[in-house]
């Protein structure tokens, strides 16, 4: 099932940029959870186009419809099918994409893999696919909030070389207080400036999103293949435009010596805790009760309002210059998507842990 | 199945550091492949302890036994069960580990997750678990070599701050010509010096392994969740001591502008190729025919011959100082493990691609 | 994923009897297949209510909408999402079902399992769930027809004690020539008479559907757990109202001696064939090139227009008498559902066989 | 993973009749369960050859070795690898099987599917494969006994036309009191007589095994595809020599009217119970607290000490007459295998139910 994710709390997304719509089927959701379309919509509104002046001005309201799995305002434990209709389609804007492969896009690989593809708006490779992830992630978020005060919070840490300080305060209010979703106001301002600047050049930029999951119980994650951080890594690298993932000390930690890197344990108010958190909240693949902290690298947007060298479907060398409305930087809109994927991974592992290790008391 | 990996070409590893042995069941292997225990052993010998003077001097011959799935020297398409007996066990060397949690190890998280754990030699969290991966990876390697001249080659790119030049020649012979498995002789020498140095301090170091997969067909990988690089990321983060993964331009690429980062297409001798390879061989989650190139961050070994602050199973704060024989740097022995995981991912996706997209010609 | 079926050719159904609709996401479909909504609709029309005077007179047009996965009339290899809106809902007809458990229905088990359920129209346990299976099965049917002239044909073999002769001719035209879908006209007439008779009593009947899959290649099915007949058995027992499955000689074959039961091989025009087919087309879990032949037992419909003893959600003993429009016999409408499930199993195993055993020629 | 079974409590079996041995990896077992090799051995001894004078006289001790997953006599939650060495091999007894296809065996289908097969002793299609199932089933049995007094009990209900009375007492002691494992002494005697009789003719017989699972909680099983009875059906049809499965009223129930077949609910001592159990303990795919009762059809053994018409690998028509020691009737030894598979299904669904529906109390 190439279009499904999760072992017990599973999402199956479907839909292309142009066509009947995009959607998701969420299977395995615990029953009895109060849920409304409005709660889903809040998260979708954080990822939709046109929400600020530094993202694509496309007008997509992305209104979610829950088609199944709820009764009298609560989940029933049966599949939750959610649908967002497509709108604002201008197929003519994509006529060139039928015959010319956009550089660093999926046109060429799709064409070769499948032989027959939907070129309009990138088809299945469109970022609209992430709508289903965000919708399902909103359900996961609610489960985590009700079940254990778990809070997942992502933000733009760096745009190109503009990086916020490590010790800046991070709250949802601060993150949502500006268009770029960086909680440090001063840095945010510089980032926004930079984004507007490159947009003016018909160019684009990338950067790094950091995410922290707070208040996790000890014990989530499996020892070998399905390590908590391994599943997070897969979740993040499954997002469009991502090129890297690191947890805790990450790549920078490789320059330290073991004596500098290890996290000593201490007894803090009767709990086993680490004095530092270079492990990033996971040890041996399993959460240790500290904050899980990871970062995701996003490349600069591939679509440029500049001429680029490429070839067409017949192999002729040519040039392509995008028209239309595009994001000069995907990171502000990717923040809720990163949170959604992290929440999906967390609920899935919570259920797995419960099934095997909290079922019988021998 | 927390101890299985792969959708169609699937491995299930089992076993602890101390006990009857470690092993793997490889399910889904195509039939008819010529295979010998010797071919498996070659790869196991690359990861075994005691192979050089910069790795742990433990004497483990790690001799593999193929128990099933072969007949008259060829695979039969049924499960291939491979077993390596445990030897050279000194349970007394681990007596402290029963009661004291080693910092930045899995002792505490295992204890809390499962309630009951095997503390000897780290139990299931021992690096011996990777024997099964390497054994199965050797089968994958042979399939890829026979089927399409695919070659997967990993090497130590950096130890702490000692990094080999990007343009150094990379061949298997160069990599295997020194103990640290860095193909650049001069850099290798400095790395070895550094490792011996920190070992003398009872300390440890980490670094970065780079891996390249050559001669892949276009079309491997699924568009959404099971992207080729997403499955590689999961595979790599599932290895002990890893903290990060990046493909192509990775984290460094996030500082570039789109116009600098995109890979222009060209027609090279009738084939669609990219002029540069910042994509790292994958576009939209699917291989594009260029080299797949990725890097994995390994933290410094957690086991130190120095006193470290920690707590015991009753919550008392205490100190722990490892005894015995340990790797001051895991990277040289991790090189064949990275290759093994990459080969497992590649064969799995090759089979998936074949099943869906090369089955019927409509 | 409790609501998914299939390993490579996978369906995920969703939806309740009352609510936004019912649907299915089909993942893993090969690309390039010509497909229209009309082809899906043909099969849905065979299962819809109101199609004859011996099934429920409910008026449900069950019009299918393909929301994704097609481009210019061909599949793209991405998920095919299909939706059928719900109509003709009379929630008041189900008001009693909120509080009273219908005998031999799923009301009590759902209530206990999930704690919170949708009682309207049986919610997820409604036979409307099978719409998604039939829609996806229509795609599988087309693949099989185009790829290898495989033909799956089911029919009503027996209603209560009224059974058609074993040697009667079986064609699609004969099956569709009467309301009960029994290819033997004389038997069909008696069956229809019986069904009308019990309906007049407010009662119901069951029977046996037989299904044969013709022109299968040798080699489909896995040797151990995922035997072709084991996956058929699961597929059939996953249908509402089924109580049994048998393949080939089935239960009757258990009274024979081995010398009577074995199927001798012969060389027929250069092919290895069996002289008889008590194996039912599978040997060791794998198709042997003969017709796969199996039978499915359907119990009499549980919903009766008669008073029945039961209890309510508070544990009070009470009586329940269904109102409204119900099928006195589910078998005529179950025929296309049995075919759909058989086709889904077949395509799935075809892809699995191709992936492992037809990928590389060593 | 064609050689794995179960979603959360998963077994992967491996091994052929001739070779290093047969075994199983059990993944997902809850930690802390006291377990010994002796407990496993008890069940293996019930299925081993040579245990009575009506089964094959082959001498196979089938001694189990637990290689991993235990520490100090308790499960650790990591994979339990169990191995039984092969012994008593007479490859020469199988020399003909290399070139001649045994009727109603898997020789021809394996050869065609895989191209390369192990013909010795039937290779992977040997009944020795079920050793791994029984070993893992013994763990499941222990979990169920400790967790909820669940008891799974199977017995030979019928051999050819010799059937025990429906109302006979059924206890483990009665079942184990005779060689054929039928709890009704008089019937057992007639069955044994019949088996000896056909063996004298070089022939074989089949029959029906019935199984009942007592004391199950309400709520196991998933509503749609993974119905409790659907997973049982798959489990049973995955056993060698099975041709049919029925639950509750089964095929016989199809002759009843709905008013005769439905199970009225009643309030029995404060619990919702059914007055009859034609549902067989499952309603809507979910256990309802009554005994789960099902029957499995086993065909007569295919191996006969009589000449049979067949063809060889080159397509020449020829005759084959088995030599050596064979079971004239597989049912007595299949009883513990049926129990094992039922217990595996039950534990798996128990864990699934716990994960989704007993995790959070909203």
Briefly say what this structure is.
The structure is a homotetramer of 362-residue chains. Chain A has 362 residues and is of the alpha+beta class. Chain A is built from 8 helices and 18 strands.
Structural account:
- Four copies of one chain form a homotetramer.
- With 362 residues, chain A is an alpha+beta fold.
- Helix content of chain A is 27%, strand content 22%.
- A five-stranded antiparallel sheet of chain A has the order 1-2-3-7-4, with helices on one face. The first copy, chain A, has a five-stranded antiparallel sheet with strand order 9-8-10-16-11.
- The radius of gyration of chain A is 21 Å and the shape is globular.
- At the A-B interface, strand 1, helix 2, helix 6, strand 11 and helix 7 of A face strand 1, helix 2, helix 6, strand 11 and helix 7 of B.
Main features:
homotetramer; 362 residues; alpha+beta; Chorismate synthase, AroC fold; five-stranded antiparallel beta sheet; 18 strands; 27% helix; 22% strand; globular
Number of domains of chain A: 1
Separate helix tally of chain A: 8
- Share of helical residues of chain A: 25-40%
Q: In angstroms, what separates the terminal alpha carbons of chain A?
A: 36 Å
The CATH topology of chain A comes to Chorismate synthase, AroC fold
Shape descriptor of chain A:
globular
What is the alpha-carbon Rg of chain A in Å?
Answer: 21 Å
Oligomer: homotetramer
